[in-house]
């Protein structure tokens, strides 16, 4: 026992105590000081009249770090009068009460009787130093409160590189360990795993400083941290802890599981009383492994550049080979070049309903209408049978103004198709059309019209990209400053930082979109130069043969591919729920532009204008954002979207079937009834445009099925669902185009065949890697990390990076297919090329 002078000796320590502890300290009449020993359990009691002080000492070595742990259990359950423990060290003070009360959601209190804390180890400058610390125990309870105190040394307190260590922890018994960087290691990855998802826990990496923030209510105050169910991984660089070349790995069990996607078991409906949670223990394993070296970064960059720059080399070699082949065969363009006179023979199988021999029917360009059907034979080899033209528009021609058109292609102020030569209502509603019928407008006007596609998407790209870049930089800054790694959904097992970027490999892998998009623009530029040179030479083959050459949409597609790479890289700076549309917006645009280009090939006069096309794509992106924000489980939203989807499908089908020669007004229902009456009741006749009807029926079946799937299943990933709708329609139209091309007697050259086969294979592998699902922002960050996987390529790239590589190659190949698919028609007159 101490004498009367003991208060004076301990007076300087009072400011370090909590108010309740200081009050108990002053009110206590007796102080009991004991010499404590490690690994000995002390069972004592305190009351408002008695304070117990335990004195411990241990030897600290500079080159050896040893952890010290305080374990406390209060045997008397009195929440209204807790026991206060104050641990006084050389450079730190740790105080806590038992029962320990931690707060959760809605400020709910959770009570813990068994508490354990690891003491922060102050540094020493001597080789060997004897350090003392004291444990003060006090309470305001008038009667004795029993407790148990144990001080022990922590085995395996220092983690070793590559060695797995298992341990247990609870919310009131957090654990932390120290790791020291080896001399030859500049970056490590801390991996923590558990066999059970719950209870939810937090993994934190903190500098070697006192105090250590190791409770649920303060673990986020400093360092880097992330929530965890079964997996967690944090990449740590030496430069971030250069002061001590070491750091603490802190593991804390949360009081509630809601942050990890678990249920909230206790809800504050009653009085604000502490809730005894019992034993929320979790068994975990931790291992610290060296991260990739600088050589891996160099290999990754070189691989990425090598893959995509090889396409530039291959393109140059193919261009040289093609030029040599044309020179050898004498097929270079000359001033007196002529188109092929025979064209292709169209084979019309008898099995198609509504097909009739039409060899004697006069169609094609009006200047060459008499020769437009030479050499056409049906599949049975029958003789020519005259075919009579029949108009099948929705309303009688006599009641329709000659210049009236609701097609989005015709300009409001003027029309470049002269009605003196032909009436659009007549020529565009013929049963059988040639490209010459739909390529009658002035080439200069159409060229300017399709150039708008490029200039509009370039403008959209600038205004879209600038705020996106600014936003993701802000996201990355917030992650770096706060240390909250739950903000971004990385694959943390394969996220390699560089500078301020947390996942440089995910950004680097998007380089392919940019490089291949630029290469596609260069290919289009070369083709346009060659075509313009042929026009300047008044080459008849360039003027009157092949699919009309309009390059504006191709330029827009190449720009969209480059922007997809840029915005995908921005998204992967910090992928999360709020910026997912950055990665998908230009995917919608690419799908839409590809469909427009396919349609433009044989419908150059009536293709959609850039303004209406981008307006429709903007509506798609708008619904994408609405679906992501409000679509999850919202039945009303899915009903509205499905109705709009089906309505848009019907309107577009009507537009395509009648080549824009219809009118949406108050008389639309009367005209529909009239057509149904004449075609279904008065006489049962099949569709006049069989090929178009087949495409549109299949398209409606697919779109109605997708709408029903969305309405019934209501998928959580609305953005991907919307993208599937666009891709399915694109694939359907592309397959229809190829089938109709072959059915019309046309052929596909070797290069587009190789592109189709290669692109299909690459798409297959790309989709395999895409569906690996390394992370998902549809779940909590902790649940998303359960899908994380190690790198699979050069220890630098993961499955999603390979998806970036392969999908960029596949998109580039798809663009080449669109570019070269109709090269076989370059020597065929346009009044012999069929429209479908």
From TrEMBL:
Gene Ontology terms describing biological process: RNA transport
Annotated coiled-coil segments of the chain: none
Record has Transmembrane as a keyword: yes
Keyword rRNA-binding recorded: no
Membrane-crossing residue ranges in chain numbering: 296-321, 453-473, 507-525, 553-574, 611-630, 636-658, 693-712, 718-739, 751-771, 802-821
Chief location bin: membrane
Gene Ontology CC terms: lysosome; plasma membrane
Subcellular location(s) per record: Membrane
Signal peptide: 1-22
Keywords from the named record: Glycoprotein, Membrane, Signal, Transmembrane, Transmembrane helix
GO molecular function: double-stranded RNA binding; RNA transmembrane transporter activity
Topology relative to the membrane: Multi-pass membrane protein
Domain of life: Eukaryota
Family: Belongs to the SID1 family.
Protein name: SID1 transmembrane family member 2
Record gene name: SIDT2
């Amino acid at each position: 026992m101490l004498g009367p002078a003991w208060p004076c000796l301990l007076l300087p320590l009072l400011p370090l105590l909590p108010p309740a502890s200081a009050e108990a300290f002053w009110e206590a009449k007796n102080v009991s000081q004991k010499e404590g020993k490690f690994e000995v359990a002390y069972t004592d009691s305190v009351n408002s009249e008695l304070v117990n002080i335990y004195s411990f000492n241990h030897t600290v070595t500079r080159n050896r770090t040893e952890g010290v742990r305080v374990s406390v259990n209060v045997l008397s359950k009195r929440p209204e009068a807790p026991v206060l423990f104050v641990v006084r060290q050389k450079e730190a003070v740790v105080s806590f009460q038992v029962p320990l009360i931690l707060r959760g959601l809605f400020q709910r209190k959770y009570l813990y009787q068994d508490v354990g804390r690891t003491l922060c180890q102050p540094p020493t400058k001597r080789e060997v130093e004897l350090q003392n610390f004291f444990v003060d125990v006090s309470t305001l309870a008038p009667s004795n409160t029993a407790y148990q105190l144990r001080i022990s040394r922590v085995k395996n307190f220092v983690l070793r590189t590559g060695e797995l260590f298992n341990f247990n922890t609870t919310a009131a018994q957090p654990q932390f360990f120290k790791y020291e960087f080896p001399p030859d290691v500049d970056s490590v990855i801390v991996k923590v795993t558990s066999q059970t998802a719950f209870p939810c826990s937090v993994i934190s990496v903190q500098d070697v400083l006192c105090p250590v923030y190791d409770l649920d209510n303060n673990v986020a105050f400093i360092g880097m941290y992330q929530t965890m169910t079964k997996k967690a991984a944090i990449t740590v660089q030496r430069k971030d802890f250069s002061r001590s070349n070491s750091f603490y790995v802190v593991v804390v069990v949360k009081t509630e599981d809601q942050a990890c996607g678990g249920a909230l078991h206790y809800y504050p409906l009653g009085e604000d009383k502490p809730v005894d949670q019992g034993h929320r223990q979790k068994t975990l394993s931790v291992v610290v492994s060296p991260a990739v070296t600088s050589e891996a970064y160099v290999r990754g960059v070189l691989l990425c550049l090598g893959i995509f720059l090889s396409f530039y080399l291959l393109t140059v070699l193919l261009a040289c080979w093609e030029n040599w082949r044309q020179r050898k065969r004498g097929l270079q363009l000359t001033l007196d070049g002529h188109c092929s006179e025979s064209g292709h023979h169209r084979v019309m199988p008898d099995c198609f309903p509504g097909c009739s021999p039409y060899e004697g029917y006069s169609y094609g360009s009006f200047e060459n209408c008499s020769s437009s059907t030479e050499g056409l034979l049906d599949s049975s080899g029958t003789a020519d049978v005259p075919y009579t033209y029949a108009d099948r528009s929705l309303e009688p021609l006599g009641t329709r103004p000659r210049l009236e058109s609701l097609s989005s292609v015709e300009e409001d102020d003027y029309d470049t198709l002269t009605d003196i030569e032909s009436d659009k209502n007549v020529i565009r509603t013929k049963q059988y059309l040639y490209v010459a019928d739909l390529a009658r407008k002035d080439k200069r006007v159409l060229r300017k019209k399709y150039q708008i596609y490029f200039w509009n998407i370039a403008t959209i790209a600038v205004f879209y990209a600038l705020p996106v870049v600014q936003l993701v930089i802000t996201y990355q800054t917030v992650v770096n400053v706060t240390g909250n790694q739950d903000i971004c959904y990385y694959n943390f097992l394969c996220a390699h930082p560089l500078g301020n970027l947390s996942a440089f490999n995910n950004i680097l892998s998007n380089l392919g979109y940019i490089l291949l998009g630029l290469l596609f623009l260069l290919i289009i530029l070369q083709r346009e130069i060659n075509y313009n040179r042929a026009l300047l030479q008044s080459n008849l083959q360039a003027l009157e043969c092949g699919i009309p050459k309009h390059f504006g949409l191709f330029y827009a597609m190449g720009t969209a591919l480059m922007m997809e790479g840029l915005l995908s890289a921005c998204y992967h700076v910090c992928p999360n729920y709020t910026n997912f549309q950055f990665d998908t917006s230009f995917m919608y645009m690419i799908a839409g532009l590809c469909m427009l280009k396919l349609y433009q090939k044989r419908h150059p006069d009536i293709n959609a204008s850039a303004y209406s096309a981008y307006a429709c794509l903007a509506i798609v992106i708008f619904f994408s954002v609405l679906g992501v924000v409000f679509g999850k489980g919202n039945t009303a939203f899915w009903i509205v979207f499905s109705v709009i989807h089906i309505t848009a499908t019907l309107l577009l089908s009507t537009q395509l079937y009648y080549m824009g020669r219809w009118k949406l007004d108050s008389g639309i229902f009367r005209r529909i009834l009239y057509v149904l009456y004449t075609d279904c009741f008065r006489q049962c006749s099949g569709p006049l445009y069989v090929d178009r009807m087949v495409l549109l029926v299949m398209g409606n079946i697919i779109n109605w099925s997708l709408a029903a799937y969305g309405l019934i299943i209501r998928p959580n990933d609305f953005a991907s669902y919307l993208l599937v709708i666009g891709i399915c329609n694109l694939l359907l139209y592309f397959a229809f185009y190829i089938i109709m091309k072959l059915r019309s007697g046309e052929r596909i050259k070797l290069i587009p065949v190789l592109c189709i086969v290669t692109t299909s294979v690459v798409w297959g592998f790309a989709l395999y890697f895409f569906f690996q699902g390394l992370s998902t922002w549809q779940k909590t960050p902790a649940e998303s990390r359960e899908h994380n996987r190690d790198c699979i390529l050069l220890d630098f790239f993961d499955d999603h990076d390979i998806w970036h590589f392969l999908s960029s190659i596949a998109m580039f190949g798809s663009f080449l297919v669109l570019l070269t698919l109709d090269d076989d028609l370059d020597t065929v007159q346009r009044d012999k090329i069929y429209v479908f």
